[in-house]
């Protein structure tokens, strides 16, 4: 049997593999700027020409983009699988929002389950920071910023996905949030704008979910995450129905006045 020579692996290919792993696991995120070439070469313990070759290969794959005088960035729309017209179409359809929440219920329950099982100390620190940011928004009763609350809510759920250490779940959740970012924030912000009972319900659910994950109670975390998304579905459905009733009343009133 003939045995062929084993070609030595280029150092640049090893660097590419390492950077791809960091992108896949969420260490490097879409839109994030890579450290300067000199710093990154020192961190990897490689030569700058080898690093430069690796960066060029990643750029050729569409994973990196270069900005004149601004360095190298992870591609901003990485993971986006829908075109802009379709995004607008989904954002404008209540039934699409319902479908999105049903999908989130399944995904986020699994994320919470695995986060409770797998979260490292670093993950817990990130989750704590996201939770604290959300709590800080809750405390601003006199100067409430609904958009900020909605964005903090989304970041909290994304931190749970990161702690799951399941790259498919992470990137699916991240893609959903990026794809419908304004809609997610608007919906959640709209919920916070409702009566105090709704807001208190959200606060309590987040607290229970956060504690279950931090304490490693995986089954409880799965159930609590599912219950939370179900609650969001219910509140938004009630709001939509209330809006439809108001529209019907206005139409009837306008007819009686003519």
Automatic annotation (TrEMBL):
Keyword DNA-binding (UniProt): yes
Domain HTH gntR-type intervals: 9-77
CDD domains, alphabetized: WHTH_GntR
Single annotated GO MF: DNA-binding transcription factor activity
InterPro entries named in the record: GntR_C, TF_FadR/GntR_C, Tscrpt_reg_HTH_GntR, WH-like_DNA-bd_sf, WH_DNA-bd_sf
Keywords from the named record: DNA-binding, Pyruvate, Repressor, Transcription, Transcription regulation
Pfam families in the record: FCD, GntR
SMART domains for this protein: FCD, HTH_GNTR
Record Gene3D superfamilies: GntR ligand-binding domain-like, Winged helix-like DNA-binding domain superfamily/Winged helix DNA-binding domain
Transmembrane region(s): none
Role according to the record: Transcriptional repressor for the pyruvate dehydrogenase complex genes aceEF and lpd.
PANTHER family: PYRUVATE DEHYDROGENASE COMPLEX REPRESSOR, TRANSCRIPTIONAL REGULATOR, GNTR FAMILY
The name this protein goes by in its record: Pyruvate dehydrogenase complex repressor
């Amino acid at each position: 049997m003939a045995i062929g020579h084993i070609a030595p692996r280029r150092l640049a290919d090893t660097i590419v593999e390492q950077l791809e792993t960091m992108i896949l696991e969420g260490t490097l995120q879409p839109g994030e700027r890579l450290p300067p070439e000199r710093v990154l070469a020192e961190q990897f313990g490689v030569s700058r020409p080898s690093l430069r070759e690796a960066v060029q290969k990643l750029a050729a794959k569409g994973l990196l983009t270069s900005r004149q005088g601004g360095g190298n960035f992870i591609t901003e729309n990485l993971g986006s699988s829908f075109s802009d017209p379709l995004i607008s179409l989904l954002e404008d359809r209540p039934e699409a929002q319902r479908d999105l929440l049903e999908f989130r219920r399944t995904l986020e329950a699994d994320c919470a389950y695995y986060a409770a099982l797998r979260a490292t100390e670093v993950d817990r620190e990130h989750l704590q920071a996201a939770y604290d940011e959300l709590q800080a928004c809750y405390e601003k009763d006199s100067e409430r910023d609904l958009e900020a609350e909605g964005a903090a809510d989304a970041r909290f759920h994304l931190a749970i996905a990161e702690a799951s250490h399941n790259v498919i779940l992470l990137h699916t959740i991240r893609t959903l949030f990026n794809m419908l970012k304004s809609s997610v924030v608007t919906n959640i912000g709209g919920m916070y704008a409702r009566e105090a009972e709704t807001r208190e319900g959200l606060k309590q659910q987040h607290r229970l979910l956060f504690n279950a994950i931090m304490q490693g109670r995986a089954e409880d975390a799965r159930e609590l995450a599912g219950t939370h998304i179900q609650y969001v579905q219910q509140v938004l459905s009630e709001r939509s129905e209330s809006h439809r009733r108001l529209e019907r009343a206005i139409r009837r009133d306008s007819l009686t006045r003519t």
